[in-house]
Amino acid sequence: MKPRRSGRRRERGQVLPMLAGFVLLILAAMAVSTDLSVNTHYKRQLQNITDGAALAGAKLLPASPALNDLESATAASLSVVHNAFHWSVTGSGWAQSLATSGCASAQCTVTVCAGISDGATCTATVSPGNASPFVLTVNAPPLTAAVAHYNGDAHRLEVVMHQQSGVFFARIFGTQPDQEGAQSIAYHFAPAQPLPFALVSRTVIQSGNQGETIGGNIYTDRYLSPQSNGHAGICAGLDSNGHPGYVYLGYPQQDDASPPYAADGQSSSRADPVVSGATCPAAGGQVAMTGRPVGAADCIAGLPGVLTDSTVTYDAPDDACEMNPSMPLPVVAALPNLPVYPVPVCGVLGLVLGSYAPNEYRCPVGPALVVDHQLAPGVYEVDAGLNTGGCDVTMDGTVASLTGVTFYLKGGAGLCITLPSGSKITQTPFNAGTGDPGDGRYIAVSDNVAAPSILLNSSGGGSSSGIWNVSGTIWLPTGSLTMSNKAAIEAVGQVVVGTWNDQGGYHQNAAVSYNSTLAPQETEVLQLSE
To answer: How far is Cα 49 from Cα 80, in angstroms, rounded to an integer?
Structure first.
């Protein structure tokens, strides 16, 4: 009988082919892994280049970009990419020349094709040199942003690139594309731009019986509500430069959404629609503006230099401008060189040679500062105490002129002004002489903690109002400004409050006249949007 062959010997011939296949799979995996690493490198490198190019270009966009500004921004972006890829150029002014050739009618679009075109219209065709073939496009303003309202925004610039990645095995296996792409959009909010509103308030309550004129733009988050049965009216009038005033509303308003806003906000179906193209002061019960927007372009043009990602539109039912989402709390220049006072004082302990000296004023109970003596120029920090009515600073007209005085209301402190009929207190802000954006601008400013307040009251009879006459900015975005019967404010500058409450009755109503030189400047921003 023949001996049987071992099954192990029969299988021995299959080991080598299996081993060879396994080795090939390992090599293929290693090759694809290498390609993936190369692919990631190309993508990261490309994104870094487009990010830098977009930021370099956007940095040159001023507050109101003209076509020549767009050309300069485009040229700067081209130069940054050229520094990375070194395609051949002629002359030192090549970037500006190329940008100019691609700019017309408030739009710059320049496409550089190096070895590939991807179907694009090439402004210039160059050799890629040692680099992988690529297509570069600079758009100022953007044209292909994912966020729709970025497109056409002259304060943004877009850089888009596609480049062959250089991978080999992955293309063979069909697991990776042979190109990598990157898109960057940068935004620049130029420095030295004041917030362009005479009055900013989350809620505006106007229950007096006289027309109230706000010289400049008005922004209110929810609604403007004049007294419907009296003769109250509020009107956005001409500013100090003769520009018409516009009313800007937050979103949503009554006509924009279902509950909880169905019975809230402006509406053409209520008694207080906005009347455009009016002459201030407004008629009784009206909300009005001298501006007459016919579309979003007019609303945007009336609002230069606002740092917001809101989409500004024209709301036809309300005949007003609208910002969606509602405008966030503006970021503006802080008080310059805010002093640090070592020991807080209470009341008369702050008197020095018969006048109050700048200091931190704090009293556990009662007013921290009673303005019954002259105040030396400076910043007066006032801490909130346990006071009925929140009167941490009181003024009654004993001192009629406050020159170079700024009240810094901390922790929800309150300023109470009680004026006899026909009297007036004038106040100008402290100017430290630093030249900083917030220096010499704030009449009253808060730390945005709790609910700081300013309350204007009247004392005694008479037929005229007591007036607080200020030149500068009142900045209480989390607080309130309330004017009772026979008391009013006359402000040249700007007012930013959480609630504007005018209860002037048949007497003089409040008035604000926008002056950009007395408004604090918003903070410069240079950032990537996409």
So the answer is: 8
Which tokens in the block code for residue 37?
Answer: 């690493």
Q: Is residue 474 part of a domain?
A: yes
Same domain, 162 and 59: yes
Same domain, 197 and 183: no
Is 519 domain-assigned? no
Whole-number average pLDDT of the chain: 85
Q: Do 302 and 434 share a domain, yes or no?
A: no
Assess whether 257 and 295 both reside in one domain: yes
Q: What is the pLDDT of residues 419-448, one digit of tens each?
A: 998 899 999 999 999 888 889 999 999 998
Domain count, the chain: 3
Say yes or no: 222 and 261 in one domain.
yes
- How much of the chain exceeds pLDDT 90, in percent? 50
In order, the DSSP letters of 378-391 are EEEEEE--B-GGG-
* Whether the Cβ atoms of residue 487 and residue 503 lie closer than 8 Å to each other: no
Greater pLDDT, 176 or 220: 220
81-95 mean pLDDT: 92
Pair 167, 279 in one domain = no
Nearest-angstrom CA–CA distance, 209 and 505 = 5
Domain containing 312 equals: 193-328
- The Cα 467–Cα 490 span in angstroms is 7
Domain boundary among 161, 188, 215: 188
CA separation for the pair 420, 437 (Å, rounded): 36
Residues 6+ apart with CB under 8 A from 85: 114, 128, 129, 131, 134
Cis peptide before 325, with omega less than 30 degrees from 0? yes
Q: Work out the pLDDT band at 348, boundaries 50, 70, 90.
A: very high
- 212 and 111 in a common domain: no
Do residues 268 and 180 both lie within one domain? Answer: no
The 8-class DSSP code of residue 350 comes to G
Residue where a domain stops, chosen among 268, 299, 328: 328
Q: Are 267 and 273 in contact (CB under 8 A)?
A: yes
On whether the pTM is more than 0.85, the answer is no
- Coil vs helix vs strand at 14: helix
Rounded CA gap, 461 and 15, in Å? 112
Q: Give a yes or no: residue 54 inside a domain.
A: yes
pLDDT of residue 340: 87
CA separation (Å) from 120 to 110, 125, 315?
11, 11, 38
3-state helix, strand, coil in the chain (%, to 5): 20, 35, 45
The CA dihedral of 371, 373, 379, 385, to the nearest 10 degrees, is -40
DSSP bridge partners of 528:
186
Backbone angles phi, psi at 396, to 5 degrees: -125, 15
H or E element in which residue 96 lies: helix 94-101
Cα angle, residue 294 at apex, residues 268 and 521 outer, rounded to 5°: 95
CB-CB neighbours of 106 under 10 Å: 13
**Rg of the chain in Å (alpha carbons):** 33
368 within a domain of the structure (yes/no) = yes
Q: CA distances (Å), 525 to each of 48, 76, 306, in order?
A: 20, 18, 11
